[in-house]
């Protein structure tokens, strides 16, 4: 009789360990077993976007000169580039820097032979300026000695981009929640709580480039420079239990 009692106790202990107690032929689940039940979740991703006006321009100007001797070319490039830089400094542009400086020999090729015919010198600088001031300043730089407008990029101010990021994230979150509500409503389920939130990004695009290389404008015509918009995109993923 004592051995039977011990065997029953061991059997009961094992059953309780797996979350089930045998009582009069019935199986009763304990709280531990209920907690192990797999959580049902729905995962949805919402997307949002917002535009920010580009109010600043990054301009790259160049001085390109060709001539017979290296010294002649280098001196003329230096003279013109210095005049352009002095002008830009007087206009209080920001982030003024030299971005390229080259002096290359030029050859002519005929009958399999090469002959040195001269040199080409290039000096390029870049700077940032309010978009509204870019056109007139380019015209002044050309008059001062610049021979190339190598590129223009438009960008929004940091504060405008930050505001656009917030709007895009809010829109993405609302989109994800609307999708979840539609699915739960169609299936007759009730959302319980948001289990996790993943922000996949509020991406800021690269500045908008204009033509990679523009020849200097006619001195009698003002150069029009018109900025565009930067679009900030965001995605938000929600995991919701039901």
Protein topology:
Layout: H1 2-17, E1 20-23, E2 26-29, H2 31-35, E3 41-53, E4 56-67, H3 70-90, E5 94-110, E6 113-130, H4 131-144, E7 148-155, H5 158-187, E8 193-203, E9 208-209, E10 214-215, E11 229-241
Antiparallel strand pairs: 1-2, 3-11, 4-6, 4-7, 5-6, 7-9, 7-10, 8-11
Helix pairs in contact: 3-4
Fill in the keyword field for this structure.
three-stranded antiparallel β-sheet, 11 strands, 3 domains, Alpha-Beta Plaits, elongated, 242 residues, six-stranded antiparallel β-sheet, disordered N terminus, 43% strand, alpha+beta
**Rough shape?**
elongated
Uncertain regions: pLDDT < 50 for 5+ in a row? 1-27, 211-219
Give the termini separation.
Answer: 51 Å
CATH superfamily of the largest domain: Protein of unknown function (DUF541), domain 2
CATH class categorisation of the largest domain? Alpha Beta
CATH topology of the largest domain: Alpha-Beta Plaits
**Beta-sheet strand percentage?**
35-45%
The CATH level-2 architecture of the largest domain is identified as 2-Layer Sandwich
User: Tally of extended strands?
Assistant: 11
Structural domains: how many: 3
**Main sheet?**
6 strands, antiparallel
This entry's quaternary arrangement is: single chain
Radius of gyration: 35 Å
Helix content: 25-40%
Structural class determined from secondary elements:
alpha+beta
Order of helical and strand elements: HEEHEEHEEHEHEEEE
* Global mean pLDDT: 83
Please tally the helical runs, counting DSSP H or I stretches of 4 or more residues. Answer: 5
């Amino acid at each position: 009789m004592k051995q039977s009692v011990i065997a029953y106790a061991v059997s009961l202990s094992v059953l309780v360990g797996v979350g089930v107690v045998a009582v009069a032929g019935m199986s009763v689940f304990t709280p531990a077993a209920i907690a192990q039940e797999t959580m049902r979740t729905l995962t949805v991703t919402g997307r949002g976007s917002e535009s920010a006006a580009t109010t600043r321009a990054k301009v790259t100007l160049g001085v390109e000169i060709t001539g017979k001797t290296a010294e002649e070319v280098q001196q003329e490039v230096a003279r013109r580039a210095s005049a352009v830089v002095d002008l830009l400094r007087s206009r209080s542009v920001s982030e003024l820097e030299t971005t390229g400086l080259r002096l290359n020999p030029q050859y002519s090729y005929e009958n399999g032979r090469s002959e040195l015919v001269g040199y080409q010198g290039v000096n390029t600088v870049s700077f940032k300026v309010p978009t509204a001031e870019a056109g007139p300043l380019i015209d002044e730089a050309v008059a001062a000695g610049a021979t190339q407008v190598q590129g223009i990029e438009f960008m929004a101010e940091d504060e405008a981009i930050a505001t656009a990021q917030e709007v895009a994230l809010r829109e993405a979150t609302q989109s994800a929640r609307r999708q979840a509500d539609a699915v739960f409503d169609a299936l007759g389920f009730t959302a319980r709580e948001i289990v996790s939130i993943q922000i996949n990004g509020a991406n800021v695009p690269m500045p908008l480039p204009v033509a990679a290389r523009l020849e200097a404008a006619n001195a009698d015509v003002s150069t029009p420079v018109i900025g565009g918009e930067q679009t900030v995109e965001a995605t938000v993923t929600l995991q919701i239990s039901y």
